[in-house]
Design goal:
The structure is a homodimer of 405-residue chains. Chain A is of the alpha/beta class and 405 residues long. Chain A has 13 helices and 13 strands. Helix content of chain A is 40%, strand content 17%. In chain A, the strands form 3 sheets. Chain A has a 5-stranded mixed β-sheet, with helices on both faces. In chain A, a hairpin with a 3-residue loop joins strand 4 and strand 5. In chain A, helix 2 packs across helix 3, helix 9 crosses helix 10 and helix 10 crosses helix 11. The longest helix of chain A is centred in the last third of the chain and has 25 residues. The first copy, chain A, is globular, with a radius of gyration of 23 Å. Chain A starts with 7 loop residues before the first helix and ends in a 20-residue tail after the last helix. Chains A and B meet through helix 1, strand 10, helix 10 and helix 12 of A and helix 1, strand 10, helix 10 and helix 12 of B. Chain B binds a DNA duplex (30 and 30 nucleotides) through helix 1 and helix 3.
DNA sequence: CGCTTTTCGCCGCGCTTAGGACAAAAGGAT
DNA sequence: ATCCTTTTGTCCTAAGCGCGGCGAAAAGCG
């Protein structure tokens, strides 16, 4: 808060610019007068700002479309954000897949590409493949690379703010590298990184089941179990960027050893791998998590029981989370989230039983709406959230590797 | 007089006003040039704003004090927020005591009063006594009641945002009432309520061991165990205002029944009452928490062991909290917090062992600095935090004429 | 006594916004 | 067909605000 010249006047202009851009994002196509009414600014001011935006090529004229019958009077000169003014790129590195997506500034997804990968692929190889995918996607969509304002990158596992990935046991090849920098070098674009649960939280709270809630926790149930916390529309990342690691909540102080080194973590009870291996042992045949889900859907009592138990165990940790964070809504996603009521009902029951009453009553626990696309869309959202359209001062897509969140 | 609604311009002015007030609150006594350097604004702007504040009687001249030897040059005309411009009142309702404090806007505590009460006194009686204490305090200090800008009120137990206290088993007499309204009626002043842990968090993060940290969790260890979470200087209260209830973290799914209705809560293991009753059973004589602390300090091995075990149990819950919230600092207060290293060392050890490494490394766990005054000062801080000195005298609540679609 | 240093008040400049005047472009009424 | 009303967009002016610069004031130091 010191020294740095914000150029106070400029900041006022900038804030009003932001209002106008937001109005255009919300209204889609609008006249200058519409924007003035929506923002509360005067028509003159709006006209001036729209002029700037027009000169910078960020808004374009719309030769009307359909709605010419709005009464008598001079017909409005309709304008809209130029979708081609900027793109946001998202990359999702999954355990067994890789996906990229491109969206324009109006939050419309223009295209996606996805490839399956071998288990635990090398980080370097994954990034090369991702860069290829990005090239192909941009080619296919005929999108100008220079107008990409940023890249969001989803990584499973803890992302420490200082750059290198922590001790992620899910993708061991990623340890010690600084994926953001390498990806930024490869793509020559600014890159922001988020972990899978945080991105899912962002996506569900922006477009999915968390829309409109002030505080949303996204629970990703898969091989690992993670949570992303969104408060007042902003991701809560904690001091070091590792907030939301609910999978390593201690459920039982003398339980099994977890890959994190602790004992009795939630993941050792309710992670997809734990469930599958439990059932494999009992059934005497090798099951993977997908098998568990499909057999449970077909009515297999053992698989149903295993999912219900997992739900109850997760409920213990979620109840603790409700006591601590008291969120308004919890959105459950991830591959195991598809189990639906089989898992969600025992989870809800467990939460009502174990959370203190007022916290338990405040929260609504709902399934996610975005499915497998949650992380990918979240990576896009990470870029759109900071969409620097608002600040006019240029430098949109230079080689500057802004890896700092 | 003629430009009655400058609109956005006013908001800029207001924001700079806020900066100047904040600088004065931080610096205490300062010259205009000091403020300019601190805020980054120009000397002219500061001079103009200080002029406004002076006209409104909010700042006054300080005829120097001591520090005249700061080099050669024209001596600065020192100014300071006029302490008499406004007061903040804090009331702390404890289990066995009642305390009130008065502070001025420069965050200086002008006086305190404290009385002991019988266990579990009636809410109505407590509030009457509090109102009497307030009257006496204002009389003693010769403070003008009309200049009290607000009252902060500390209550042990969950405070639901909608007003009435939830099922607080600590002060059963308070259930169902709306203490804020009753107190506001009694005092004829605006009242804000916070629970004890939240207030402690606010106090320690403003004046105590959490100064300067972006995210602080305050742990109150007493009969109950609670936490207050401060993120970026703001209290995080959750959707319903009950965030931070760490005392009811489930430590053992099949443990003892807790007063909250759940089983195996942290409080049933590490609450002061639980420790004392455990030791009483073993020792065959009635011990209260104070006895445990004093005997442990004198070297009694049983009491030391009990405190260490409590620290370890609390560490389990705190590790979970670190995984979820990833705070920068944890401040330990409350009556049991006085045990010092006896309890803190095992707690730290437990956290390092059980939190995921990156979260465990980020956090520093330190004892509180404010002791018994934490809640009381926090109640004052609750008022000072929202001190509306920043917005100019005119049109305090008229500014909000939002026209959203 | 003069020089340096630091502070403070005042003035003008540039930027921004709000509001009014004015032209433009329709539809409806006569 | 012509005029009036209505809505829109632009231009111009007035006012608010912050910033930089100038000069005066008030010390200490040589």
């Amino acid at each position: 808060m010191r020294g740095e010249q914000p150029g106070a006047l400029g900041s006022l202009r900038e804030s009003n610019r932001e209002k106008v851009v937001k109005a255009l994002q919300t209204l889609g196509v609008a006249s200058r007068a519409d924007i003035a009414r929506w923002t509360g600014l005067s028509r003159s001011t709006v006209s001036s700002i729209v002029g700037d935006l027009h000169d910078e090529g960020l808004v374009g004229d719309r030769q009307d479309g359909g709605r010419e019958a709005s009464g008598s009077g001079r017909p409005p000169a309709l304008i809209a954000l130029d979708p081609a003014a900027g793109f946001a790129l998202g990359i999702d590195f999954g355990k067994r897949h890789l996906a990229v997506a491109l969206a324009d500034l109006s939050h419309e997804v223009l295209g996606e590409q996805r490839v399956e990968m071998t288990d635990d692929y090398e980080a370097g190889e994954g990034m090369l493949r991702a860069a290829e995918l990005v090239d192909r996607l941009l080619d296919d969509l005929d999108a100008d690379r220079g107008r990409v304002i940023g890249v969001g990158m989803g990584i499973p596992g803890p992302v420490h703010r200082t750059g290198p990935v922590g001790s992620s046991a899910i993708l061991p090849g990623w340890s010690g590298t600084s994926p953001a920098e390498r990806m930024a070098d490869l793509l020559e674009l600014p890159v922001r990184v988020g972990n899978d649960a945080n991105l899912g939280a962002l996506a569900e709270s922006t477009w999915g089941a968390g829309r409109g809630s002030a505080s949303v926790v996204y629970l990703k149930l898969a091989t690992g179990i993670g949570a992303g916390i969104v408060i007042a529309g902003r991701l809560f990342e904690g001091a070091g960027g590792t907030a939301g690691e609910i999978g390593h909540t201690t459920i039982n102080e003398t339980g099994d050893i977890c890959r994190c080194g602790n004992r009795g973590c939630l993941e050792t009870y309710a992670g997809a791998a734990a469930i599958a291996s439990l059932l494999s042992r009992s059934f005497g045949e090798q099951l993977d998590p997908e098998d568990v889900l499909s057999r449970a859907a077909q009515g297999d009592p053992g698989c149903r029981r295993a999912l219900a138990d997992a739900g109850r165990h997760i409920g213990v940790a979620v109840a603790n989370l409700c006591n601590l964070v008291n969120p308004e809504r919890i959105v459950v996603g991830g591959s195991m989230g598809r189990a639906g009521a089989l898992l969600l009902d025992p989870l809800r029951e467990s939460v009502t039983l174990r959370a203190i009453p007022s916290a338990g009553e405040d929260v609504r626990i709902v399934p996610g709406e975005l499915g497998e696309r949650a992380e990918l869309l979240g990576a896009v959202a990470l870029v759109l959230q900071e969409a620097s359209l608002a600040q006019g001062g240029r430098t949109p897509a230079l080689q500057t590797t802004e890896t700092k969140p």
